[in-house]
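Researcher: Re-running this chain for the archive, since the previous output was lost when a drive failed. Same request as before.
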Amino acid sequence: MPTPVYPCLWFDGKAHEAADFYCSVFPNSRLLSRNDFIAVYEINGSRMMNMNGGPEFTFNEAMSLVISCDTQEEIDYYWEKLTAGGQENKCGWLKDRYGVSWQVIPSILGPLMNNPATAPKVLYAFMQMKKFIIADLEKAANS
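Model: Regenerated structure tokens:
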């Protein structure tokens, strides 16, 4: 059985608050353990760990968490929840209230970008977006 790999996010005193927030945003999520410094939890079956490490390190876009969404409703839901108190960026990227970067992407993006006939048009379309709009990507692919 392979050893599972999961991220550990470094927080300055907000590890427990962030774990509770993420568990509230994602369905099928739960807190697994908590002590003074660490919170271990699952969001949609993926294990995560938050650590209260202090102010030495902060988050940046070099590491992001990806949420693949099948519907516009899912994109809208995660975008609204995770940008509350955070910041919208281009191309489906955002920073949540803790500074963690996320990519909220439609699951059809891969097939559209792997098709040489649609990729340039879809790329141009999503470069104009902050939050992805599936209908606009499909329209660009079919133009």
